[in-house]
Design goal:
This protein has 131 residues and is mainly alpha-helical. The protein has six helices and no strands. This is Aldehyde dehydrogenase domain-containing protein.
Length: 131
């Protein structure tokens, strides 16, 4: 079990330590992966150029408006990727009951109100029973 000689003899298995313990994993696919810098390649269809025309200067007035509209939304995270939770976030969390959308918040409010009504009705019936 884990005989280093046998492990090194099988060409397709990765061999070698990582970091301080060795030089990395080599052999077969591992050698290729070790010396490969992966990059993302996106093939954009030609019809997208019309939608993304705002990338290329000079700008027409309509394209400038589109550019400003595209950049008007600020990201909801900081430089470290942590979500920014300002006053608006907490107001929505409290009054929206944590719903991700308006529809979800309304549904949660309906459920809360229905539960409150049912509780109030049962409480009233209990008081009538105890009298």
């Amino acid at each position: 079990m884990n005989d280093s000689y046998m492990h090194g003899c099988v060409y397709t298995l990765p061999f070698g330590g990582v970091g301080e313990s060795g030089t990395g994993a080599y052999h077969g696919r591992s050698s290729f992966d070790c010396f490969t810098h992966r990059r993302t390649v996106v093939a954009t269809p030609g019809w997208m150029d019309k939608l993304l025309r705002v990338r290329y200067a000079p700008y027409l007035q309509s394209e400038l408006k589109q550019y400003l509209w595209m950049n008007s939304q600020k990201p909801d995270f900081d430089r470290n990727g942590k979500k920014i939770r300002g006053l608006g976030y907490w107001i929505w969390m409290i009054f929206g009951l944590g719903g991700p959308t308006v529809k979800g918040a309304l549904l949660r409010w309906v459920i809360v109100l229905a539960a409150g009504y049912a509780y109030q009705t049962q409480f009233h019936r209990l008081q009538m029973f105890l009298k």
